[in-house]
Amino acid sequence: MSKVAITVSCSSDDATAVDRLAETLEAMGTQVLAVHESIGVVSARAQERDLDSIRALEDVSAVEVGSRFQLPPPESDVQ
Amino acid sequence: VLFEEGSEDSAAQGLSDVLGATIEQTDSSGGPASGATIAQCDGLVFSDLGVAIVAADDDQLEALTAPDAAVEGVVAVEPERTVYAQGDDPRGVAPEPVIRMLDYARGMHDAAEALMRAAGASAPSPAQFDESQATWGLQAVGVPTSPLTGSGVALAILDTGIDLTHPDFDSRRITSESFIDGEEIQDANGHGTHCIGTACGPATAVDGPRYGVAPAAQIFAGKVLSDRGSGSDAGILAGIEWAIRSGCQIVSMSLGAPVSEGQPHSQIFETVARRALRRNTLIVAAAGNDSNRASGRVAPVSHPANCPSILAVGAVDSGLAIADFSNRGDEQSGGQLDFVGPGVDVHSAWPMPRGTRRISGTSMACPHVAGILALFAQANPRARSDELVALAFKGARRLSLASFDAGAGLVQAP
Fold this sequence. Notes:
The complex is a heterodimer.
Chain A: E1 3-10, H1 15-27, E2 31-36, E3 41-47, H2 51-55, E4 60-65, E5 68-70
Antiparallel strand pairs in A: 1-3, 1-4, 2-3
Chain B: E1 2-3, H1 8-19, E2 24-26, H2 35-40, E3 43-46, E4 51-54, H3 58-65, E5 74-76, H4 97-118, H5 136-140, E6 154-159, E7 174-178, H6 191-200, E8 218-223, E9 230-232, H7 233-245, E10 250-253, H8 267-278, E11 282-286, E12 311-316, E13 339-342, E14 346-350, E15 355-359, H9 362-379, H10 385-395, H11 403-406
């Protein structure tokens, strides 16, 4: 099963709680890409099969698979 | 107690008889009723309103509200309500100031629309724009006549970066950060430079008309989209965190991912936007260009502009008509449109050697709104984010467009 980019929001934006959540995710085998303490969010890559387990963690308020953004080509008249 | 118009005196007398109490009168020649007056008297008639506030026991209330009640001139009787300042409701309702302000403003806007229709009012006639001094967009939002410049306000533009060699930004202090792996802040795409130009370009451009809304705002250029125009939630969230930590009052994001009708907004971006608001950082985002109105396709506001705590910006043309590509508020999912800005045939900066370019999109409308919010922030240095939103709503020019297309209307410089 492939890994997906995910965003995990912590139920608190307290830095300690966010760091603790990141450690828990790593302990589960999730690859933590960035810890955004001031907005209470962790960016990570995880196996799809692990998403439900991550959602069930105590400090997690939401888990979302990352969106991709794509601008039209620079030569386009509408951007 | 509501009195029938023209029967205030007789109704007040009848009310006094039922209650067996003297009812005080206010009149238009006097000052406002004091809090002490309201608290102490048995009854008070607001003559100009045709309304009385009275204290009544259960029997008296029944006498006033019974089907056969015969107090001449009384139209309606309602129990007094207790109201609370926003955020102070002792029932523990969580304060959501921006959302409440938006809902209030939308209600006001809808009411204004209904009144205009009822009165047979026609749409405001579009101004004729001479772009020799300033772009049509700046004129449409009232920038050339505003004394404000955005001085002292930190404004972040999260996009494809900026052309650091552009002569129009020569004298500007620019704080920048790239969140794209392997790419510097230098903009090889053009989109970011165009958006920064609209939000923060100079008062006098090296070549051509003025195109910048807030020429003295401090520029924070965050690269969250690559030179090929692509990005991810992770990079955008990193950019938002950087902007918050840098003390930016306004964050402009001319980016979005299409959503389907009824698709709920991102809980994570909504939470982040609320956390940003608590730190006085207001996020503005483009509503998206996924519509093709001429062919009947109207798409809902994109992610993340569809989050209630992020301001969603649609686009109008120089005739103040909604742009063909501009997305619409989605009543089903709650992803509302908040404002429109100039977004068709917009002249702004482009990486050298070209220097400037005209393009269209809600991406171009968004930095107009962000720049105007920076002007409001300069004029109201102690205002919270939600207060800036309320001021912008109050000052917006109402258009003859549905609120799900145009929100509160076209932003106007203070």
